[in-house]
Predict the structure.
Amino acid sequence: MRKGIFITFEGNDGSGKTTVSKQVYEALAKQGYDLLYTREPGGIEIAEQIRKVILNPENTAMDARTEALLYAASRRQHLVERILPALAEGRIVLCDRFVDSSLAYQGVGRGLGIDAVQRINDFAIEGCMPDATIFLSVPLAVGLARVTQRGNLDRLDQENYAFHERVASGYEQVTQCFAQRIHVIDASRSPKEVIQDALETCQRIITSIWK
């Protein structure tokens, strides 16, 4: 049996990663690939319960380290219950967010430090990093405008502009640190162009691993 492939999608809020990742999943499924599509935080029942706590707008008193630990706990359960079994079956896993989000949001956005948040997550994931990551890059102002337009803002959506600026800076650092794994796509273009670019990138990743 050939090895499974783990591909994640990342991006600032409003980058369109959920829409793009779902469209890529549907296109690859039509091509006959055996896939699993999932998301973070969440993906399975326990992790979804943790997601509700993290993103609840009423939980304004949440400490930054508590937030980082909750994300790691959600990630751990999601990994062992859903992602690892799929990879063991030789499937392709597409995941909306993973460790890179924590490095950007909690490591830089919350000021905990990328190395500190990486250590928390190293304990949680035991070395299971993505084979490749699609990062959807969009200007911060554009992304935040999209978030505002869609409404129903969660606790992180409601953070101030300075926080989102720090997160954007965090993603810049992460994409530089993991340049070999992360494929940056310009997400300021039309949805059709972005989806096609992401699909072709995923196809190249799959081909290179399963060559």
